[in-house]
Amino acid sequence: MGCWVNWMYETIRLDVKKNVAYVTLSRPERLNSFDLKLGEELYDALRRVGGDRNVRVVVLTGEGKGFCGGGDVKEMYAAEDKPFFLRELTRAIHRCVIEIREMEKPVIAAINGYAFGAGFSLALACDIILAVKGAKFNTAFINIGLAPGCGTQFVTQLVGYHRACELILTAKTFSADEACEMGVVNRVVDDLDFAVEEEVEKFRKLPPIAVGLAKKLINESLRNDMFSHLELESRLASFSAATEDFKEGVTAFVEKRKPVFKGV
Questions:
Q1: What are the structural domains, with CATH classification, of the chain?
Q2: pLDDT tens per residue, range 13-58
Q3: Is the dihedral of CA 89, 90, 95, 97 positive or negative?
Q4: Rounded to an integer, what distance in angstroms lies between the CA atom of residue 210 and that of residue 207?
Q5: What is the DSSP annotation of 76-113?
Q6: Which positions ≥6 away from 19 have C-beta within 8 Å?
Q7: pLDDT digit string (tens) for 67-99?
């Protein structure tokens, strides 16, 4: 597949190469902080790549020293109607979070530095999180007298109630290694670019329809009861059995060769 660069965006970059969409938050002078423009553009990019059958995996990262420093505090300060502004800003963040979770393809967060507040929440919405050594995390909202606008559910599900209280209520900064120990990130690496490419290469070879449905099942399992979830598993397994990828998978198994999946 070809590549497109900077699809008329001001606050992000979008590149697609070899079935992988690289979405880069690009406000490095503001630590890629989340404002309404970034929220609008990120949502558009996520919807664009989410609907592109040629894209098998999405990588989300930041330009410069950080992944995302959270909501743009300077814009919060400047807003005349602060409650209205925060309502709009959190909704913009939520749209991106929902798009990431509902997209039936894996989204990898490549944490290249600070992931604070809304930036931390955005990372937690992703399916696999890789962090460079030296990366820092913080829920952050409390530090500016703000109730968390996103992320409390993700944090609590990941680390449990008491540790979530420590991280959220005290806005404790923690390292990439600590995040890995808590199960917040998958791996801490020295070379982030190499680790990302190593990860995306797996998804270039895996069956994208089955991967997407598996992601859907994982997310649905967080809210379904056992009986309804078993029924959903049965229906989606049956659905995937009608794909050419399934035919290729079982044929390759019988013929004792590696399958070549085409996403159909």
A1: 12-204 (3.90.226.10), 206-255 (1.10.12.10)
A2: 999 999 999 999 999 999 999 999 999 999 999 999 999 999 999 9
A3: positive
A4: 6
A5: HHH-SSHHHHHHHHHHHHHHHHHHHHHSSS-EEEEE-S
A6: 1, 54, 55, 56, 57, 204
A7: 999 999 999 999 999 999 999 999 999 999 999
